[in-house]
Amino acid sequence: MANKKKILIIDDHPLFREGLKSLIARNPGFEVVGEAGNGRKGLRMAKELTPDLVVMDISLPDKSGIDLTRDIRSHLSETRVIIVSMHSKIDHISEAFRAGATGYVVKESATERLIQGLEAVSRGEYYLDSSLSNKVVKKLMEFPEKEAKITDTRYEALTPREQQVMRLLAEGISIKEIAERLFISPKTVENHRTNIMSKLELHSAVELIRYAARLGLIDVDLWKG
To answer: Do residues 168 and 104 both lie within one domain?
Structure first.
């Protein structure tokens, strides 16, 4: 079939990859052109194969699927990413979409919903697994309002990851919890914090909170008293 959409699968479980390939093979509109078991190989193959679609997990052995989504989208703007993950928490899902994913399916319903998701994303639509709560959509809708308030050049000089960490630190989230949410090590969070404080010319957690409140990133009323 001349117009088959090329798909790259990135997941560290061989049996699950085989299941996805078998499922996708039933649909004449799609073709699996490659597979990878870790983020490093996945990014390399994405650059080599320039797939139309990437189907990947969030939890990879060497790299977060969230970060890998950003990497792929930065190199291949036309490639669409669908996350297929066991994680169904709002934070994971919202992070995936903010990173550039255009579809999200939970693994337990992949058999019923993956092809539907691939078809929707191929049409240029966003796809969210219907088994997920509507609260996810409400969470996603919060972000544009917060982004609109950002005007400080020092904040804009932060990397996207540093901006994420900065917001979480300002909300009072612990280093350990930030690491768990973003699928990175506590040491990496500490390094980001050091860079953030230096770039923003801040010297304490209180200054960071005040700065974030001034930009409208957090509700200052939450910190009164």
So the answer is: no
Q: Is residue 144 part of a domain?
A: no
The reply to whether 129 and 102 lie within a common domain is yes
Last residue of one domain, picked from the residues 136, 163, 193: 136
Q: How far from 111 is each of 39, 54, 83, 117, 124, CA to CA, in Å?
A: 24, 17, 14, 11, 22
Domain co-membership, 78 together with 174: no
Residue-level pLDDT, tens digit, the chain, 225 residues: 458 999 999 999 999 999 999 999 999 999 999 999 999 999 999 999 999 999 999 989 898 899 999 999 999 989 999 999 887 777 778 788 888 999 999 888 888 889 999 999 998 888 888 766 455 555 555 554 444 344 578 888 888 889 889 988 888 888 988 888 887 889 999 999 999 999 999 988 888 888 887 777 765 444 443
Looking at residue 4, the DSSP 8-state letter turns out to be P
